[in-house]
Amino acid sequence: MKDSLAAANFMKCAKFLYSTFLAPSNLEEQEEYVTFPIFKKLYPLENDLIDTVCAVWLDYTIKDSCTQQSVVNKDSQDIAVTALLQAYIEAKQIQLPQNPVDRYKCIDSIITNNLIPNAELEKDCGNQMQINASFNISEIWTEYLRYHYEKLLEELLKKKSISLSLQTEQEAFDKLLEAQISYFDSIGYSGGSASSIAYSQLCDEMYAIHLKGTLDLYFALQAENYKPDKVYKPISNSIIIQEYDTIFHAIDTKNFYDYLDIGSREKVKACLSNEQKAWNSLMKVRKSTSRRLQGRIKSVYDNATYRLQRYHLIQLKNAFEGYGAMSNDVYSCLLSDTCSYEELLHTPNFFVKWASLLQGIDKSEQHETDFESFNQPRIFIKYKQPVNGYTVKIMWFQYGEIGNALFRLEKNGKVHYLFVEKWSDKFLYDKYCNDNVKYPNDTIIELNYIPKLDSEKYLSDNSPFFFSDIDFDGKDEFIINRFKGGSKGSNAYDVYKVGMNEITLMSESPFTELENGHCEFSSINKTVTIHKHDGAYHYELLYILSFSL
């Protein structure tokens, strides 16, 4: 009953706000921005808010008849969406923290978890229109947060009598994004039913990276002990220039661009040149702003610049591929956004990997080892049920009953990738061993996930992977079950710590020696006992686990 009243009050407030901000329009007659039937049925309040926010966004975006470009009244959008979001928060009786960092995290969590429909929950995992709309809605929220916190930062700077050219910086950033969109147009991103995903993904990522820098400065000015979540390293401009030159050279010489005629290639190079100029202008503005800052605030601001440099270098290394729908071959040549600093600097660019893929060999012995598993048939696996809140998809390179696997785990908008050797799902293992089933290349399989039994407190016999707290720290580890990969036909397990931004292998004992039937756990004593066999001899290894709080 309380939720029904909250929904009724919210919609009454939303209609009033909508009619106030958009006097010429009528909310009752407004078409839904998109239809998510299952989401609407499960979350009617959230669905109404999303429809209204999207309508506000569209109504405040108009076409300039002279330039034929979209002109956005951002101030009006910000006021309207802020009022609608506040009405929703009050309807749900959510108390926002006063601390600015915690307050933002709470708002971001509300939007991420409640106000972006997941197309995969819809019938047949969503149609193309629903998938596109989900990306677009995410982009709208990210752009809203970026602009909203830019305004808050401007107010804070005025209050503290700090003079910075943030408006110039914002204009430089917007010009960079416009230049990248023009480059996307020139290389053919604008075609196809799924093309809007590519543009939404680009905008969403760019807005998000700029938002992080805005938040860092905004929080640092208010909290003396504030530190960014991650420290980044500066990237030399000569490295950036080198990657630009590589793309320019590839446009003229590489068969990857054979679909472009001579005139089109010249247009592509012109668009890339404009994008490079826009990037240099943004870096020049940020360098100028940095000179006006001192101490801790300067360090926080510069760290945001290094974060932006890292993101842009990945874009260049990948030759701006990897947005929207793509072939599996293109995907296999991309540098991951979770790569280390050393990988970022020294990994071959997209064109080297692409040439190696076409030739069937790599350019060096090391690359040969890295891509060896790609020679096996690729099987795409999706689990029908979420696992601990994660949507799990796997690219599996079958080699008999086992094969190397690339895991993709997505939860609350965050994605983790994990490469695992010699893995198999029990269903796939049995299919090969019992029926000698070998799947053709690019087969897509949907599997039912086998959960850990209630009686299996720590390790599972048949789950292909699972979550379990096996080091007694109160947090679940992600555990890969390497079926029949242990001694005497037992299962072996790989254990990973799950962090905010990465999944890390636990490479110390006892976690490297776990096999079902050969280990015991004691949560009371916080111990793990490993049973070992050496011929006729049997012995035990006792590991006492402790954590400093």
How does this model look, in words?
This protein is α+β, with helices and mostly antiparallel strands and 549 residues long. Helices cover 48% and strands 16% of the residues.
Which ranges are low-confidence, i.e. pLDDT below 50, for 5 or more consecutive residues?
A: 1-12, 14-33, 63-71, 361-369
Query: What is the CA-atom radius of gyration, in angstroms?
Result: 26 Å
Return the structural class. Answer: alpha+beta
Shape: globular
Helix content: 40-55%
Mean pLDDT equals 81
Q: Specify the number of helices.
A: 16
> Quick one: biggest sheet?
5 strands, mixed
Distance between the termini: 43 Å
The run of helices and strands is HHHEEHHHHHHHHHHHHEEEEHEEEEEEEE
Bin the strand percentage.
15-25%
How many β-strands, per DSSP? 14
* Arrangement of strands in the largest sheet: 6-5-4-3-7
Overview in brief:
The chain is an alpha+beta fold and 549 residues long. Helices cover 48% and strands 16% of the residues.
Topology:
Layout (H helix, E strand, L loop, with lengths): L1 H20 L15 H6 L1 H16 L1 E3 L6 E3 L1 H18 L8 H15 L13 H32 L6 H21 L8 H26 L16 H17 L8 H30 L3 H23 L10 H5 L8 H6 L3 H10 L5 H6 L7 E6 L7 E9 L2 E10 L2 E10 L2 H10 L7 E5 L17 E4 L8 E6 L9 E7 L4 E3 L13 E4 L4 E8 L2 E8 L5
Parallel strand pairs: 3-7
Antiparallel strand pairs: 1-2, 3-4, 4-5, 5-6, 8-9, 9-10, 10-11, 12-13, 13-14
Helix pairs in contact: 1-3, 1-4, 3-4, 6-8, 7-8, 7-10, 8-11, 9-10, 9-11, 10-11
